[in-house]
Specification:
Blueprint (H helix, E strand, L loop, with lengths): L1 H19 L22 E8 L10 H10 L10 E5 L9 H12 L3 E6 L13 H19 L5 E2 L8 H9 L3 E2 L4 E2 L14 H17 L10 E8 L3 H5 L1 H14 L4 E6 L3 H12 L13 H8 L5
Parallel strand pairs: 1-2, 1-7, 1-8, 2-3, 4-5, 6-7
Helix pairs in contact: 4-5, 6-8
Length: 305
């Protein structure tokens, strides 16, 4: 009996060991290999700005940024997407702000909606159905004049959205564009310099590289569009915009990303197409909420991504 039990245990152990080892193919068997990963199309940056326009008469950061995009050493004639607060009392609702929107449009930039409320950058998840609808309707009506064409893109304030707000955006045919890289420059009061901007950008680029290697970022028109977010109401950002443009190029290369010959879009129509491709990739939407915002929204329970 003991010999029989020992033999059973011995066979069982041998089977377990055999199953745990990789199977060796015979010489005449084909060896399975992982499918080769196709190389990604080169990166081109979708430059975006939130919260503007700024309504200041002097030293206006929105105006300064637009001037830098036109003429800078990295690439001249860059086009960007401006997500607008159309009824901000110190921005979109001012004559100066509206004039800057018209100027941006004339320069070939894309005007998109951030918010149309006079409440001051409200979290859409906290608005009632009626208030959210009013904000969207008012914002689109305001931009109909400034943009001169249908508005296709929206970015929700505080990166906050849920199924209810997404349904409201869809009723207005607005695609939600979040971001891959964020300058974390939304704070515009008190001290708002950014001493860690280079290391932060390097970290975001490394994450982009990981996602591209996993095939999670679609390409279009021969390029992989990577969305970058700044705030055009931030005077520090405006003063350092030229540096930021070169920093994006440097840190992308440092992360091993291959850049397109022109690393930024210089054609408004191509820029909008690229943005819509990224916005419609809803499978990876949650990966495009930057930094600690997902954690914060879970903590306070205002939105369920």
């Amino acid at each position: 009996m003991k010999r029989t039990l020992a033999r059973v245990v011995s066979v069982a152990c041998a089977a377990c060991i055999a199953l745990s080892l990789p199977r060796l193919a015979h010489a005449d068997e084909p060896v399975a290999t992982a499918p080769a990963q196709l190389p990604s199309a080169p990166v081109r940056f979708v430059l975006t700005f939130d919260d503007g326009p700024d309504g200041r008469e002097k030293d206006n950061p929105t105006e300064s940024i637009a001037n830098t995009l036109v003429d800078n050493p990295t690439q001249k004639g860059i086009k960007a997407i401006f997500f607008v607060q159309t009824r901000s009392s110190n921005g979109g609702a001012t004559a100066r702000g509206r004039a800057l929107l018209q100027r941006n449009r004339a320069q070939g930039h894309i005007l998109a909606l951030h918010d149309g409320s006079s409440l001051g950058h409200p979290n859409h998840c906290g608005l009632s159905d009626a208030a959210l609808e009013q904000s969207l309707s008012d914002g689109l009506a305001d931009l109909a004049t400034s943009a001169g064409r249908p508005v296709t893109l929206l970015r929700p304030p505080y990166w906050a959205y849920d199924e209810r707000t997404l349904a409201a955006y869809a009723r207005h045919a607005l695609a939600v564009l979040l971001t891959d890289v964020s300058a974390n420059d939304g704070k515009i009061w008190g001290y708002h310099g950014s001493p860690r901007r280079r290391s932060h950008m390097a970290s975001d680029m490394a994450h982009v590289q990981d996602r591209m290697q996993r095939g999670e970022i679609p390409d279009t028109d021969g390029a992989t569009p990577i969305v970058v977010t700044f705030h055009d109401t931030n005077d520090y950002t405006a003063e350092h915009m030229q540096e930021y443009l070169q920093m994006l190029v440097d840190e992308a290369r440092g992360a091993g990303l291959t850049l397109a010959t022109k690393p930024f879009y210089d054609d408004g129509a191509a820029l909008e197409r690229a943005a819509l491709v990224r916005a419609r990739d809803i499978a990876h939407r949650a990966d495009m909420v930057p930094g600690w915002w997902p954690w914060l929204h879970r903590l306070i329970g205002d939105c369920q991504h």
